[in-house]
Each structure stands twice: as structure tokens, then as C-alpha cells.
Design brief:
Layout (H helix, E strand, L loop, with lengths): L2 H15 L5 E5 L5 H8 L4 E4 L2 H10 L2 E5 L5 E3 L8 H15 L3 H12 L15 H11 L4 E2 L2 E2 L1
Parallel strand pairs: 1-2, 1-3
Antiparallel strand pairs: 3-4, 5-6
Helix pairs in contact: 1-4, 1-5
């Protein structure tokens, strides 16, 4: 499973099994299924870029779960750092308590909150291309983005 599948499963599980109060924090590239679960459960959802910002939010206010599409995850009361061992232990807890496969659990979330699909695409660029593109975007940012107007 990808982090974009693991995070919503764990978020929904924590809402169901813990009495934690707070927000959920995800990076921009992380699945919007997190937002759908948060909205349905009246949980504030914050977006950030990079795990260090998730940790910053965690230091300022209580969170239920924070995570990113590249696999970083932390939860309420835990260290504000990526923890893969914790993620795996929580996934084992989910399967044990639900008595279902992870695929079945994810399918149930899609039925309840809507289907969200994502894929991660890594591009290898020739030396200097990233710097050129970053400078172009900085000097001439887009006036709109799909679904957002500036």
C-alpha cells in the first residue's frame, strides 16, 4: 500500500478507536481523502509542504495524525518525527480490530467518503533544469490553478 492509502486508513481508525481531539495535518501532495474524512467528522485539516511543517503544527496545537505522501507519519502524543515502525504497528492494529484486509478497509472508506486515487511521479531532470523552472515560476507565477483562483 502507498502512504496515500495508509494515511486515510489510519486517520479513520484513530477517529473510531481513540478519543483524541485536534486537527489532521497533511502535505499538499497527500490524498484529499484525508480532507473528506476530516470534513465528515468536523475535524480541522491543515495543509503544508514538507514534514517539518507538520511537526511545527504539532508543536503548536494538538493533532490526531499528520502525514505526507512520501511516507512520513506521526500521531497525537508521539514524537514530532516520521515513524515507520509506529505506522506499521498501527496498520497491524487496524487489521486485528477490523478483521478485514487492508484492501477491504480502504474500499469501505471509498464507499463512505468517495473514491480518491493518486500516483506519485518522480521526474529526473538534467542538471540546472530544476533551477531554471523554479526561477521561471517565481518570476512569473500562474494566475490560476485548477480549482483555485489567485
Amino acid at each position: 500500500m502507498t502512504p496515500n492509502q495508509v494515511l486515510p486508513i489510519l486517520f479513520a481508525h484513530l477517529l473510531k478507536t481513540r478519543d483524541w481531539k485536534g486537527c489532521v495535518v497533511r502535505t499538499i501532495a497527500t490524498t484529499n481523502l484525508i480532507d473528506a474524512i476530516a470534513k465528515e467528522n468536523n475535524i480541522p485539516c491543515a495543509n503544508s509542504v514538507g514534514f517539518k511543517y507538520i511537526a511545527e503544527v504539532m508543536a503548536q496545537e494538538p493533532i490526531i495524525i499528520g502525514g505526507e505522501e512520501s511516507g512520513g507519519l506521526t500521531v497525537h502524543g508521539h514524537v514530532p518525527e516520521k515513524d515507520g515502525i509506529l505506522a506499521n504497528l498501527l496498520m497491524a492494529e487496524v487489521v486485528a480490530q477490523e478483521g478485514k484486509t487492508l484492501v477491504a478497509i480502504l474500499k469501505g472508506l471509498h464507499q463512505q467518503y468517495g473514491a480518491y486515487y493518486s500516483d506519485r511521479l518522480n521526474l529526473k531532470l538534467k542538471d540546472g533544469v530544476k533551477e531554471i523552472m523554479t526561477a521561471r515560476l517565481k518570476d512569473n507565477p500562474p494566475s490560476d490553478w485548477p480549482g483555485k483562483k489567485s
